[in-house]
Known about the structure:
globular; alpha+beta; three-stranded antiparallel β-sheet; single chain; Arc Repressor Mutant, subunit A
Amino acid sequence: MNSLFKALNDNTRREILEILKDEDLNAGEIASHFDISKPSISHHLDLLKQAGLVTAIKNGQYITYSINTTVMDELVQWIMKLKD
């Protein structure tokens, strides 16, 4: 759970999740939405992947990233339990 909150604690990573909610993209396509280096985007994607928030599927020479809603569902359920 710590890696999940660490991943969500960064504005760039939250923006990446917002972008991926609409469509699956590769790292270059994601990077085109930002004014930061591609290695920085790769670092953010790695942290999101470690937290289970995105999945990565190798497609030829590209890796396609997609949002993992299962982890989000689990997080919402956990928060709702705290509320009760």
